[in-house]
Amino acid sequence: MPQVRLRLVSPDTSPASLDEEMLSAVFAALSDPVRRAILVRLGEGEQLVSQLAEPFDISLQAVSKHIQVLVVAGLVRQERSGRVSLCRIDAGPIFAAAVWLNRYSKHWQAQFDRLAYWLDQIERERDARAPVAGARMGKRRKSRTAPKRIRTGKPG
Questions:
Q1: pTM (two decimals)
Q2: Which residue from 8, 33, 13, 21 is spatially nearest to 74, judged by alpha carbons?
């Protein structure tokens, strides 16, 4: 049976504050590399906790604690049958976080546009300074060694 999380809210609680709490929990859960790695593995399909723990050099109990953080954030659904615990990813909260982050994409997109502009300017300047192929074909190449001086016996 899937776990259902109930939250007591007062009439003063706005939906926006609930969304903020959820986003805070998601970003806190995603802040740890072990938890991100667990989500990557769950992206491949549902797995037992023991399977999720295999690649990590930490105890099964530590992995279970990481999974619980993901469950509380709503990123993972966990079903238990006796001692066996099956986990699956719930991408809904990740989508909500992506939507929130996307609000700021206009800022970094503008920076990428400026970067592209300046890289284009640099490339145009290089092209303008580059010698045209064949323009030096008629010139003799100078010797790199200095000419030998002949001593005549006179100073100077």
A1: 0.59
A2: 21
